[in-house]
Design a protein that fits this description.
Largest sheet: 3 strands, antiparallel
Number of helices: 16
CATH architecture: Up-down Bundle
Order of helices and strands: HHHHHHHHHHHHHHHHEEE
Helix content: over 70%
Mean pLDDT: 89
CATH topology: Cytochrome C Oxidase, Chain A
Strand order of the largest sheet: 1-2-3
Strand content: under 5%
Shape: globular
Number of domains: 1
Length: 477
């Protein structure tokens, strides 16, 4: 950590861990409801659990992205955050809006629009909060003497995410028109501008963890950005197949959706190639595992499984079924959850000076959560295939089919408990890191044995001792 203002990231990371934990609680409750064990229905019905579960996902990922930005940007541009008190206000406003939205859902205060349930007054507060965030980061970039390609791609992704959110606020009474604009938010976030954010975070972590030259890593980043724009924008068409739009969206959606896995494949190849080129000598190997794992799992979940049911000939049977849930769970985990966990794993030792990543619990957190999410995906796949056959092909009633596939969710629940145990281990270690240092002089001297263990040589830079790009000692800046 070069600047004390980077400690702001901790507030967002801690918020993300809390919201992630709550999301998993609601996920477990939903799994039990799918099995017919819905004893909480009189107090928390399923139609409340689902939007809470989904919106907690979006909130904790946004908190992670914001925290990553407050940590990453100063590192890249070599100057502290501008107006850190505004950043603190922005964090407090983010938490207040999020808590109000989640509590409001329990009293059915919502718009009732899938994935965009937050009521309109809170929508405007979300926009105001994003504007504050972008102003702080933008002012920091404006006053910096250097701006890297990585940080510019990150800022463009964040700016675009805020801009596309406005399309979900267009007032309309026609359901087709409403769905048309709604997907400009949902799809162009998760399969568009969020990919830019992921790519930038991936580039930053690969730079710090592998030691490969910036020029090489950022060339890969630009390739990923190009593939994202090539496929992601018109790939929105696969959401327009069955909502009442013209037939040409069948062709547009099919062609460009088939190209969408290329961006995720590019990230997977990029991460593995940089790891092989730079080696695994960095002492924080857990951060490298989360980073490379994010690239690989995003290709499997978002790329491969997305393509598996995106063509209209297949999607006519699978849309709105558990096949979509199968793809969605692994896609969000690989593409966005893992990259946030990766940046937290990298940043927390830098901010606290404590090498918690050497504990066995970090390895357990990684493997238990990943094995758990893969097993969940397989359980949802089996249940989804059964649902498609019984409901869409055999013509059985929806509720009858739901009862027939209840026991598939028993396997999913067991897998979910493994995932939860891994995340719990991660959260416990996050707490054990403690608070960031209040003075850069409190950072411990570098552990040279850890650096030499991988065959790397520690370097001195401006009075600070570090390993490659990783600061582990004091920096007078």
């Amino acid at each position: 950590m070069h600047y004390l203002s980077q400690r702001i990231a901790y507030l967002f990371f801690a918020t993300a861990m809390l919201l992630f934990s709550l999301q998993l609680v609601y996920g477990l409750l939903m799994a039990q409801a799918h099995m017919g064990w819905d004893g909480l229905h009189p107090w928390v019905p399923f139609n409340v659990m689902r939007p809470v579960h989904m919106n907690l996902l979006l909130m904790w990922l946004l908190a992670g992205f914001m925290g990553a930005s407050y940590y990453l940007v100063p590192e890249e541009v070599k100057r502290p955050i501008v107006l850190p008190w505004v950043a603190l206000v922005q964090w407090a406003a983010f938490v207040a809006v999020g808590v109000t939205a989640i509590v409001g859902f329990h009293f059915q205060w919502w718009e009732g629009r899938k994935f965009l349930e937050i009521p309109r007054p809170l929508d405007w507060l979300v926009v105001a909060d994003l504007v504050l965030f972008l102003l702080v980061i933008g002012a920091t970039l404006w006053r910096a003497e250097r701006r890297t390609g990585t940080v510019l791609v990150l800022y463009f992704g964040l700016l675009s995410a805020a801009g596309f959110y406005l399309f979900g606020m267009i007032d309309t009474v026609h359901p087709t028109v409403d769905s048309f604009w709604r997907w400009w938010v949902v799809h162009l976030w998760v399969e568009g501008v969020w990919e830019l954010i992921m790519g930038a975070l991936l580039a930053f972590l690969l730079l710090r963890l592998t030691g490969v030259d910036r020029e090489i890593i950022e060339k890969w980043l630009y390739v990923v950005v190009g593939l994202t724009f090539l496929s992601g924008v018109l790939g929105t068409g696969h959401h327009y197949y069955w909502i009442g739009t013209p037939d040409y969206w069948l062709w547009i959606g099919a062609i460009f959706s088939a190209l969408e896995p290329l961006a995720f494949l590019g990230m997977a190849v990029w991460a593995v190639a940089m790891m092989r080129r730079g080696g695994r000598r960095h002492p924080n190997r857990m951060a490298l595992m989360w980073t490379v794992g994010a690239a690989i799992m995003s290709f499997v979940g978002a790329g491969f499984l997305g393509f598996a049911h995106t063509l209209p000939q297949v999607n006519r049977f699978t849309h709105g079924t558990l096949i979509t849930a199968m793809h969605g769970h692994l896609a969000f985990w690989g593409a966005y959850a893992m990259i946030v966990l990766a940046i937290i794993t990298y940043a927390m030792p830098q901010m606290t000076g404590r090498a918690i990543y050497r504990n066995w619990t970090q390895h357990y957190a990684f493997w238990a959560s990943n094995i758990g999410i893969v097993a969940m995906t397989l359980a949802l796949a089996v249940a989804g295939i059964a649902q498609v056959y019984l409901e869409r092909m055999a013509g059985m009633d929806f509720l009858v089919v739901q009862r027939e596939i209840e026991w598939h969710f028993f396997g999913m629940l067991l897998a979910a408990l493994l995932l939860v145990s891994g995340v719990a281990a991660y959260v416990v270690d996050f707490i054990r890191y403690g608070l960031p240092v209040s003075d850069l002089s409190e950072l411990p001297e570098p552990d040279l044995d850890a650096a030499h263990e991988g065959g790397a040589q520690p370097v001195t830079r401006g009075g600070a001792v570090g390993y490659g790009d990783r600061l582990v000692g004091r920096d007078p800046a």
